C-alpha cells in the first residue's frame, strides 16, 4: 500500500464506527481533512532546495501550487512569529493562508471588501477553532495601516499575502505597521520581467472599471522587487503559474538563491482577458497588451507616468 493510501485510510472512520461527530470536527469536510494530511505527506518528501521554489508546489486551498511553497518557506519561521495577514481573500475558500491556519494552527488576519464574503467566513461552523480575525473593509493606502493597528497586527509577521487586483503596489508601500518575514505578492506577468511599473494610485480602483479587459491592474515583478528590497526582503522565486512572487527576510536562512526579476519571472498562461462586450477572449494577457497599450503606468524608479506602450516598447 502506498504512503498516500495509508494517509487517506487513516483519516476514514472505521466500518461500524459513527466516526467523528460535529463536536469533534464541526463543519470540516473529509476532503479538507484529506487535503491537510496529504499536504503534510508531500511537505515531508519535498525538502531539497536544489529543486528550486517551484519544486515545493502542491495545492490544497491555494489557487495554484502556493500551499506547498508556503509550507516550505514557513518551516523557517520562528514560533513567536507564527501569524499571517492576507487581504483580497473573498470567502477564503481559495487562499494562500488557509492551510497555515488549518494545518499549522497559525493566527491570522484576513481582509476583504465584501461584507458577504466576511459573513461567510465568520459563519463557518468551525470558525471557533482558529484564531482568525476576519474584517470587511475596502483596502486603500490610507486605510491599510490603521486596519492592521486596530486589530493588533503590528511588528514582525510570519507571512503577508497581497492580492487585491488593483493598487497592490501602493497599498503595500503604505503598509509599514508590520515587518513580514515572508511576502507573497501577486504580480502582473504581462508587464514583463524588467519594467518597474505599476498602475497609478487611485483609492477607488476597481479592475474592470479601470479597463474592460481586466488586464489593467497591479504591478510588475520588477516594481515589487524594488519595493520588497526597501523592506530588507530578497526575491527567491515565483510560482509556476506566473502570478505570485515570493520574498523572504535573510534572517530566516532559507537556502534558496536571491534572484533578479528577470530570473524569477514566469510568463502566465491565464486566458482571462475580456473584450469590450465582456466576453472572455481566451487569449493570454501578453497576447492582448494592445488593448491597454495607451493606459497610464508609473515607473517607480523615475516616478514618471508613461503609457504601457512606452514602458514595454510595444
Automatic annotation (TrEMBL):
Q: What is this protein called?
A: Methyltransferase FkbM domain-containing protein
At the top level, the lineage of the source is: Bacteria
The record's region (Disordered) falls at 1-26
Which source organism?
Pirellulimonas nuda
